[in-house]
Amino acid sequence: MIFVPILSFALKTPKYDWVSMKLIRRGDDSELAAAAHMDLELVPGESRQSDHEMREEQHKLKRASRIARGLTVVLTL
Fold this sequence. Notes:
Blueprint: H1 3-10, H2 18-22, H3 30-35, H4 51-76
């Protein structure tokens, strides 16, 4: 219980750059779907997110992250 906080603060790890995660693009299967005469809306799991939906998802993820951090501290103590 003593070493974990001391080592965590002494060996600071750089924060992860979440921007690099956002830059990963999804594959675009629209050409393949057109060649196969399929509608992408009918493919399970296929969806397109608008900017508003993406911002809303980021807000939910940040909120969940804060809750997880708080619970981690409470349960640790």
